[in-house]
Every structure is written in C-alpha cells, then in structure tokens.
C-alpha cells in the first residue's frame, strides 16, 4: 500500500488543510508546501534549528514531522546543507512559517522547496497542543490533506487508519544507495572503511574523511564478500528508518564482521543492529527521541553530551550489568538522561561499539565528535 502521496498542485493562495490522527484527533490549518494528501507516522522534533537537515535525513522516511519550534523557515533553503539527494519526510507540520527567508546562503524559501519536491504540509497548527497529545498518546499514523483532497472527517480518518504501522516496517532498502561509491580521504589516506548505507546522511562519511579515512559506501544489501573486497580497516553501519526487527540481512552481515573481529562502529539504526547481533531485543518507544538537544551520558567517562537524535526504536539491554554474548562481554556505554533509554553499546573483548544518536551532527555543537576518533583508535589498535 502506498504510504505517501506527493502533492501535485502549488499552494500559492491560502487553502485550508487538515491534519488527522489515527485516534480521531483533528487539527485544522492552512496548506503549506504542496497541495494534496500524504500519510505517515506523526512524530515531533524538538530542534530549534536545522530543519533542512531534518527534512533530508533518510531516517525520517514515512514520517510526518511536527516542528516544535514556533517559527520555521527563517533561513530559507540553500544548496549546501542537504543530508541526501531529496526530502524524505512524508509531510511537515509547522505553527508559523516565515513569510520571507533571511539568510545570505538562502537560494529559495522552504515553502518553495516543499512545493518543488511535492511535500504536502500544513501550517497554522497549534503545534504545542499537538506535541502534548503525541507525548501523552504516543506517535501514531496520520494524514495531511489540503485542497481537493479534503473530504468528510470520517472519510479522512478511515483513510488514515488504513495505512500500515511503523512497527514491522522495513524501510532501509528504500532509502539506501543502489550503487557503491567512494568518499575520498581529506589529505593523507590513513584507513579504509566500508560503510553500510541503511539511510546514511551525507555528513557522516565526510566526518570520517576529515580523519584521513577513505569511505566506501555500500548498498544495504551488501554481502560480506562485498565488504571485504575493499580490504577495510573498519566497518561502519549507518542510521536508517523503520523497525530494526525487520533488518535480518544487516544483522547477518554484522555478525560476520564481528566473527572476523574487524573494528566496527554503528550509529542509530546501526546501534540497533549491533544490539540484535549481540542477542538483545529491540522495542518501539512511545514517542521516540527527535531533535538536537537530547542529553546523553557516556558512562565510560561520565561526560554528558548534548546530542542529535532521530529514533523511534531502542535496544533492550540491561543497564546495571555487563552481559555475556557470543562475542564476549558487552555493556551499555551511553544512556539518555531523560528516560534511561539505551544510547550506546560496546564490546569489552573486541573492537566494536555503537551509539543510538548522530555524532556527525552539530548538536552541542561538537560534543559527540570524539566518537569518530574512538573509531580511528580502534583501527589503529587493530593495525598495531
């Protein structure tokens, strides 16, 4: 079933729009971006800036993002900050869109870019009330309708309730690259890394390249033969959308990497893949973590980091003890200080670790950048 229908008309005049949640709650506003209808999981993001990076993050595939910041679009849209080749969100919900963008890097308005890419949105919504509702009831299926797509409330609700749930959704292959490509090292090449694209953001291989790493970005369907054909010093598993319980292929691949004791680093979806490879379960969070202001403690150092998140699922691993796995001892290395959700794992007997958040992002602004250095140290140690 198609989960998102992109808009085809232009919203140049004020048109009504409706946001319908699967529990029957309805919010009315104005069309923003393209006009039409779209479906997805309604989630909220608490970042006050960085909407361009959010909208182009493949991890947001099949999600209708609610911006909690009251005014969106001030800095317009530029050609440098995209994290991928397109906008991935299913829809966008804002309270007050900026009437005129004001930034020297802006090439066009956010509204114009949403129209150009066919992304249906809604403005004029009480996003504070909507966010409180999602916090209390949890993320849920939703639809945004504008223009001729608007029908009776009952009909719109039925269309929303006919959509698939996020739990059980396998999406990472939809957003991953189909062909391998290489991001060259900046300056002298020190290492080679095979990066498994499960929905990778463009800044991630760049952060590795800055450290002298040549990054071979491989499709989500890559085999162990594909990985080791590039003679990697380390293997990286990226962020991505959907339910990690469906990712049997990446789990099998990571298991082979662990069996070979190759230095391994995973983020976000990659953290959930490591959890599954170690024998832990995963579960869906009530409303998830999304934004650039999430406090996480590195339990190995005691340091608290301000971090960027986008995850609706988490690893079910014990916080109070070291676990025995088939790859040796493992422990929870990072934890969210808001709700004690597992935010990182590490093996104690071989070079492998992961975090649930996005160290390539500028939250903090650089609190989590050390994780790439930690990966480099693992590869240096293995080489030695």
What's the topology here?
Layout: E1 9-10, E2 16-21, E3 26-35, E4 37-45, H1 51-55, E5 63-67, E6 71-72, E7 91-93, E8 96-97, H2 110-116, E9 120-123, H3 127-137, E10 140-146, H4 153-161, H5 172-175, E11 181-183, E12 191-196, H6 203-209, E13 213-218, H7 224-229, E14 234-237, H8 248-259, E15 264-267, H9 269-277, E16 281-298, E17 304-316, E18 323-325, E19 328-336, E20 342-347, E21 352-355, H10 370-383
Gist?
This protein has helices spanning 51-55, 110-116, 127-137, 153-161, 172-175, 203-209, 224-229, 248-259, 269-277, 370-383; strands at residues 9-10, 16-21, 26-35, 37-45, 63-67, 71-72, 91-93, 96-97, 120-123, 140-146, 181-183, 191-196, 213-218, 234-237, 264-267, 281-298, 304-316, 323-325, 328-336, 342-347, 352-355. The chain has 384 residues and is α/β, with parallel strands linked by helices.
Describe the structure.
The chain has 384 residues and is of the alpha/beta class. Helix content is 22%, strand content 33%. It contains ten helices and 21 strands. The protein has helices at 51-55, 110-116, 127-137, 153-161, 172-175, 203-209, 224-229, 248-259, 269-277, 370-383; strands at residues 9-10, 16-21, 26-35, 37-45, 63-67, 71-72, 91-93, 96-97, 120-123, 140-146, 181-183, 191-196, 213-218, 234-237, 264-267, 281-298, 304-316, 323-325, 328-336, 342-347, 352-355. The strands form three sheets. Strands 11, 12, 13, 14, 15, 16, 17, 18, 19, 20 and 21 form an eleven-stranded mixed β-sheet that branches. The chain has a seven-stranded mixed barrel with strand order 2-3-9-7-5-4-10. A two-stranded parallel sheet has the order 6-8. A hairpin with a 2-residue loop joins strand 18 (323-325) and strand 19 (328-336). The longest helix is centred in the last third of the chain and has 14 residues, at 370-383. It is globular. The protein starts with 8 loop residues before the first strand and ends with a helix. Mean pLDDT is 94; it is low at 1-5.
């Amino acid at each position: 079933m198609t989960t998102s229908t992109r808009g085809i008309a232009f919203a140049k005049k004020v048109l009504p729009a409706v946001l319908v949640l699967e529990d029957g709650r309805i919010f009315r506003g104005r069309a923003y971006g393209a006009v039409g209808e779209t479906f997805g999981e309604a989630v909220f993001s608490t970042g006050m800036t960085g909407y361009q990076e959010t909208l182009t993050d493949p991890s947001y595939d099949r999600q209708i993002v609610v911006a909690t910041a009251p005014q969106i679009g001030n800095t317009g849209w530029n050609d440098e900050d995209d994290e991928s080749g397109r906008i991935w969100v299913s829809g966008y919900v804002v309270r007050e869109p900026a009437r005129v963008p004001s930034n020297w890097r802006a090439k066009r308005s956010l509204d114009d870019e949403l129209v150009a890419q066919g992304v249906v949105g809604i403005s004029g919504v009480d996003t504070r009330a909507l966010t409180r509702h999602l916090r209390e009831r949890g993320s849920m299926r939703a639809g945004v309708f504008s223009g001729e797509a608007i029908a009776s409330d009952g009909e719109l609700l039925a269309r929303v309730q006919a959509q698939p749930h996020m739990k059980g959704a396998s999406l990472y292959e939809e957003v991953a690259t189909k062909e391998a490509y290489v991001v060259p090292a900046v300056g002298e090449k020190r290492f080679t890394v095979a990066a498994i694209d499960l929905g990778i953001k463009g800044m991630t291989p760049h952060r590795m390249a800055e450290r002298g790493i040549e990054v071979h970005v491989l499709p989500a369907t890559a085999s162990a033969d594909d990985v080791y054909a590039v003679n990697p010093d380390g293997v990286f598993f990226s962020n991505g959308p959907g339910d990690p319980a469906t990712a049997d292929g990446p789990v099998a691949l990571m298991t082979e990497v662990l069996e070979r004791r190759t230095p391994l680093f995973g983020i976000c979806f990659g953290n959930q893949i490591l959890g599954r490879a170690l024998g832990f379960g995963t579960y869906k969070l009530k409303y998830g973590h999304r934004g650039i202001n999430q406090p996480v403690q590195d339990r190995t150092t005691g340091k608290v980091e301000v971090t960027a998140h986008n995850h609706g699922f988490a690893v079910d691993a014990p916080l109070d003890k070291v676990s025995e796995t088939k790859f040796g001892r493992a422990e929870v290395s990072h934890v969210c200080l808001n709700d004690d959700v597992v935010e990182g794992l590490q093996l104690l007997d071989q070079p492998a670790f992961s975090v649930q958040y996005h160290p390539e992002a500028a939250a903090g602004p650089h609190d989590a950048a050390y994780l790439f250095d930690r990966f480099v140290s693992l590869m240096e140690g293995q080489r030695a």
